[in-house]
């Protein structure tokens, strides 16, 4: 596992995650690999990413342990999601649902689960209740930080 990214501002797993996969191309690459498009040419075609930027991003996702590169012919490679890469699925499903509601007039892709449209929700793994802002309590876990920011 690579070292965790150091990001400026509040110490936060959201910021660290965005440092790893927060650019447009990273999540589109993960989407394409989840769809079974594992070769560079397929990923380039389906993401629209410039080839040089795609090559650099694939290299960094491999270095970060999100993808692994596997040779399928001499000097030809495919990309596969690692365990951490596969765990991006709920994030992508949530982004898709948010985009269907707020970013497009008509969903360009339909996602179904056992024959019905997916409506993702986040639930607490302990009690099973849906997570919303009403039941959350945030506690800073980094010395020198409060909810208002860095302590003087």
UniProtKB/TrEMBL annotation:
PROSITE patterns: HTH_HXLR. Residues 12-107 form the HTH hxlR-type domain. InterPro entries: ArsR-like_HTH, HTH_HxlR, WH-like_DNA-bd_sf, WH_DNA-bd_sf. Keywords: DNA-binding, Transcription, Transcription regulation. Pfam families: HxlR. CDD domains: HTH_ARSR (cd00090). GO terms for molecular function: DNA binding. This is Transcriptional regulator.
């Amino acid at each position: 596992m690579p070292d965790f990214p150091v990001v400026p501002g509040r110490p936060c797993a959201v910021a660290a995650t965005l440092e790893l996969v927060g650019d447009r191309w990273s999540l589109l690459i993960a989407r394409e690999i989840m769809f079974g498009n594992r070769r560079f040419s397929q990923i380039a075609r389906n993401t629209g990413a410039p080839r040089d930027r795609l090559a650099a991003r694939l290299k960094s996702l491999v270095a970060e342990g999100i993808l692994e590169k596997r040779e399928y012919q001499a000097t030809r490679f495919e990309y596969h999601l690692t365990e951490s890469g596969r765990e991006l699925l709920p994030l992508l499903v949530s982004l898709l649902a948010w985009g269907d509601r707020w970013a497009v007039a008509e969903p360009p892709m339909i996602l179904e689960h056992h024959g019905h449209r997916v409506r993702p929700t986040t639930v607490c793994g302990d009690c099973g209740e849906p997570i919303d802002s009403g039941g959350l309590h945030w506690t800073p876990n980094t010395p020198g930080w409060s909810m208002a920011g860095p302590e003087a």
